[in-house]
## 1
Amino acid sequence: MSSYDVIIIGSGPGGYVAAIRCAQLGLKTACVEGRETLGGTCLNIGCIPSKALLHASHMLHEAEHNFAEMGLKGKSPSVDWPQMQKYKQSTVDTNTKGIEFLFKKNKVDWLKGWGSVPEAGKVKVGDDIHETKHIIIATGSEPSALPGVEVDEKIVVTSTGALELGKVPKKMVVIGAGVIGLELGSVYKRLGAEVTVVEFLDTITPGMDAEISKQFKRMLSKQGLEFILGAAVQKTETNKSKAKVHYKLRKDDSEHVLEADVVLVATGRKPYVDGLGLDTLDMAMTDRGQIQVNDTWQTSVKGVYAVGDAIEGPMLAHKAEDEGMAVAEHIAGQHPHIDYNLIPSVIYTHPEVANVGATEEMLKKEGREYKVGKFSFMGNARAKANFSGDGFVKILADKKTDRILGCHIIGPSAGELIHEVCVAMEFGASAQDLAMTCHAHPTYSEAVREAALACGDGPIHM
Ligand code: FAD
Ligand code: NAI
């Protein structure tokens, strides 16, 4: 039996960041991980492999659609799927090994196996019981099940199966027009599949600023993705190589069937807390199956903390990382703080979609007086040169004080551009503060400045 200051269960972005930060702050730290490799969902079967496939398939799209126009002639590349899978895997391996290296560098012990918490102060891994002053649960999430839909990870798949299909399907049906459905649907569309997205609601990407969501759907439709909205999936049926998706249109209850080679079920994720022994600990949970924590990430059991997808809040890697870092600092006696209103979110399609802070719908609901500054990438020289003029930046600012309340971007590198607005909002900046900041020319960032100018006396290039 060994003893530690902190044992973290789970090595995803929440867990591994907490482990490294604890070690940096002088705490004797171990991290339990049952998977073969470190890094959790994000590095192994989430953010990283999906972004590798998004990148490769985007390159193909560029070659097919924009190369000739730039005077780059020749045959477009064809898809070598096994090689693309190898590229994806090597990206994953580099990253997961990187965490292993960081653990060694920071003297974090990796306790290999599945952990449970028999009582506060103890973590069981296999037959070994380890004593510890503090425990951090960072066990992440798993795909939610959909009644009537049986996942076999070959024909009916979750994101995990979708990342390693044997071949590019001819026809793919995606259930759920959320982040996973649209990112992976885009990948397979670009690689040549016919992709139909079936969504329960009447809009895609629920919760997103409605104007952006509408534009996003228009752009994805232009790229060839088909959408069936307001449709409740009833069940799927599979034979050896195909599936049928039965759905009902909510507006008239009419029943329809779609055929597909692969069905991707992307209707959300739920916390993964199986096997931890939380019942025995009588740990308080929310009615959505999340571990309840207070504002220092402490659960209802003293000395046991929880972070990441296993607790409330957006299921995002960077949110889990921030919590991992903050809980470590709290345990070490510091006073960390996370502003949950300033967690950006990004969809890595082309174009990217990014947002932070309030949507227009949220501000309306709050009855808040606000102004809107918008700027189209059509007025941005860099974007036009790069065939990326479709899309816009939208800044929402308080009508009286000009303080920035939210920003929504659909366009080139939106996932990078959003961060200057995050920093500005973190410092309580006004739209004018952004507008008065010199932005290099020609950059996409100028569109952010122009949107800020649009909150005041007006943009220059529109
Ligand atoms: P996880 O990353 O899920 O890690 C939990 C780890 O705990 C796992 O490795 C698991 O094996 C381990 N574990 C569980 N129980 C035990 C146990 N009892 N003992 C030992 N180990 C255990 N987010 C983004 O911000 N950007 C993206 O681009 C993005 N892309 C995504 C793409 C896909 C396809 C998916 C599925 C998710 C994506 N996400 C993305 C979400 C992101 O992956 C999660 O928000 C993030 O991984 C949550 O981190 P976590 O540390 O809470 O848990
Ligand atoms: P999601 O919550 O983003 O989207 C699920 C979609 O499915 C919603 O539009 C919902 O209305 C729809 N839906 C639910 N039930 C349905 C039904 N019966 N029939 C048809 N549609 C139905 O969930 P998703 O895409 O599975 O992603 C899970 C989590 O992973 C998200 O919370 C996201 O934060 C995270 N993620 C983040 C990424 C990023 O940051 N780029 C990338 C991928 C995942």
Note: The chain has a mean pLDDT of 97.
## 2
Amino acid sequence: MINFEFHTPTKIFFGKDTHKQIGEIISNYGFKKILLHYGGGSIKKTGLYDQVLESLNRNKIEFIELGGVEPNPKVGLVRKGAQICKEEKVDMVLAVGGGSVIDSSKVIAIAALSDHDPWEFSSKKETPAKALPVGAILTLSASGSEMSSSAVLTNEDGEFKRGFNSDFNRPLFSILNPELTYSVDKFQTGCGIVDIMMHTLERYFTKTRDVDLTDQIAEGLLRSVIRAGEIAINNPEDYEARATLMWAGSLSHNDLTGAGRDYFMTCHQLEHEISGIYDSVAHGAGLSIIFPAWAKYIYKHNVEKFCQYAVRVWNIQMNFENPEETALKGIIATENYFKSIDMPVRLSELNITDEKFEEMAEKCTFFGNRTLPDYIPLGKKEIIEIFELCR
Ligand code: NZQ
Ligand code: ZN
């Protein structure tokens, strides 16, 4: 186990009806005027919007609304939100939605207290020095943004999707009511399951040895998500399954499953190149295609860990004569699971050809200025080879 820092300051309010306390929670923190930020309208359809307004009004919290966050959130709207916060002198930003809304809120909160353009933070030219507090009411179990230190934005000018980490990205509080995810459709539920699994898998496949406790936490989380995912896909209103997914989503990306080890996040970096260019691709769907390709490309460089994954997570019998066979069976089991929840596992299923592989690899290597650290360094050639396996 290597040295690590672990800091998860976000206060969680978990369970049924918790969102109805939003006005009281904000009032208890002493905030009086907020930016209410949300997406394309799901919260109006489900009635959540009315419930939030009722609680804010009852507690005399003044609010300014900014809706319209798109999946793969854009920096343009963040600029607008930051401007509103400056002009209206708001105390905090309240995100009501999924990862896109929360990420948009996080960067608004940073840009609201800065003279820099928000993209300067996303492109890592600037480091945040302060931020307005962000609170979230989560409506989709997936990104883990409700507890994470990262925020991911797309710059519509150039089709770049970039994330950055900062403690200023950690929400002050997040309200997690699994019932709010009953209305999430099968496709987005599937995307969420893949994203949650991937946040843990990206930390699990590490070069660091002797991290048994963190490994076992990760394996337990994965087994729970696999089971709960199947149930939630078939019965969207199963409270326990939705609750398991919601809590697993937060724990997968608050770094609990990364404690004591270095990790690469390769699949995320490759995926951001796909959904950065192809805006209609949901993050989880992109990951569902990338993971099997990446794993098949890389597993020979750490057969032992891939065997451990196959045996402990998928209950596959270890073949001591042929460990590579065991490792590969674990990868195929994951791919089959993704298929079973109707996730795509090849780019052709999304009608994406090899036309932009070169451009995606260029962008991913920062135009030849870096290789991705992994079990072997991944340069442009290797990245294109992985994209080829996604076809
Ligand atoms: O916009 P609305 O109308 O709310 O609809 C959304 C959206 O169309 C809908 N939805 C959300 N909650 C719903 C609902 N529909 C019905 N009922 C509900 N209760 O779902 C669609 C997708 O929402 P989105 O927020 O885009 O999904 P997700 O939570 O998966 O977030 C994806 C974004 O998060 C980033 C991704 O790259 C992507 O941009 N990520 C952020 C991370 C972070 N900050 O830590 C880590 C992740 O790895 C990820 O990169
Ligand atoms: Zn993710």
Note: The chain has a mean pLDDT of 97.
